[in-house]
Write a structure and sequence with these properties.
The structure is a single chain. Helix 5 links the parallel strand 5 and strand 6. Strands 1, 2, 3, 4, 5, 6, 7, 8, 9 and 10 form a 10-stranded mixed beta sheet that branches. The chain is about 40% helix and about 20% strand. Helix 5 packs across helix 8 and helix 10 packs across helix 13.
Length: about 325
């Protein structure tokens, strides 16, 4: 009996060591999410025009991804805007993008190639519709644009989509009642200053730097888009259902607004990918988007409005499984 004691002690020590290694293994499994390595490779992100909010947001997000996911090489692609962005992701020309909800819905309703593969990762911030005229302009409403020359954005842009809807709601046919130019935000301000256009539409986050710069060196005014037009927009059905009444705060463009807020229309922006995008990658990238809100928001004010509580609502798109995992992991 006395000789058996050392043998029993060795067995207990061995069992104790085995248990300790098991606990350590479980701890490492817990600390290293699901034991997976950080995503690596190249992802393509379709953004927008060089002077628009999409491009600036994408550039700052790339820096945040480089910090959180150093194995990823994020390549940014300029675009005309939301409509082109949606098509690129749906057809595999880009992996991720930002696009307005109305453009997503319009693509789905048109049964665009790959529309059924589109998935949402997060609701981000809102785009506000701007109708910009010289301060001395007699234009006081959208209907007053009749017979005038108006820049409405490139064919693949979100601003072209919303401008067409807003004009129709005001009883104007873009093909007959106004002269339209397909210029974007990069050239619109210069055309207005040179009196080559009477007005331009823009849809973007607040503030958009190109309009801030214009208002600082040229007297402009923002034409209100009232609730009566919002009701008519909703009556159009389809993608117009994603527009809602909003108020552009007085401090968005202080030089032009002169202390007055402006009624307008807003539409939500979504972070979009495809159903077949790797779930682990999508989960981690969604986490970076939410976690980097304050860092990006310091330079892109619209990004400050990214909110975990509303980010999950990516209508009209279903959530990507990877994004769903992220929201479940942070659910209180």
């Amino acid at each position: 009996m006395l000789q058996a004691l050392p043998r029993m002690s060795r067995r207990r020590a061995l069992l104790g060591s085995t248990a300790a290694f098991a606990v350590l293994g479980l701890l490492l499994w817990w600390l290293l999410p699901l034991g997976k390595e950080s995503p690596s490779g190249t992802v393509t992100f379709s953004t927008g025009t060089p002077t628009g909010v999409y491009q600036k947001y994408g550039t700052l997000l790339r820096h945040a991804i480089a910090k959180d996911l150093p194995g990823l090489d994020v390549r940014l692609l300029n675009s005309d805007g939301s409509q082109e962005n949606v098509r690129r992701v749906a057809t595999g020309q880009a992996d991720f993008t930002i696009a307005a909800a109305d453009a997503v819905e319009a693509y789905r309703l048109a049964n665009g190639p790959g529309a059924d593969r589109l998935r949402g990762c997060a609701r981000l911030y809102d785009d506000y519709v701007h109708l910009v005229v010289p301060r001395s302009s007699p234009v006081r409403s959208v209907a007053d644009l009749k017979g005038r020359t108006v820049a409405v954005g490139p064919g693949g842009s979100g601003v072209r989509l919303v401008a067409d809807h807003v004009l129709a709601a005001a009883g104007l046919d873009p093909e007959k009642d106004i002269t339209t130019l397909s210029d974007g935000i990069g050239t619109m301000p210069g055309l207005l200053k040179q009196n080559r256009i009477d007005a331009f539409f823009w849809s973007g986050g607040l503030p958009t730097s190109a309009i801030t710069q214009l208002s600082n060196n040229f007297p402009i005014r923002l034409v209100p888009i009232g609730s009566d037009l919002v009701a008519k927009l909703h009556a159009q059905g389809g993608a117009s259902g994603y527009y809602r009444a909003a108020v552009m705060p007085a401090d968005a463009y202080p030089e032009s607004q002169q202390g007055a807020s402006v009624p307008t229309v807003a539409v939500a922006n979504l972070l979009v990918t495809r159903e077949d995008t790797d779930a682990d990658l999508t989960e981690k990238l969604t986490r970076t988007v939410i976690d980097s809100r304050d860092r990006i928001g310091a330079q892109v004010h619209a990004a400050q409005l990214v909110d975990l509580r509303s980010a999950i609502y990516t209508d009209p798109l279903e959530l990507h499984e990877g994004a769903r995992r992220y929201y479940r992991s942070v659910k209180p």
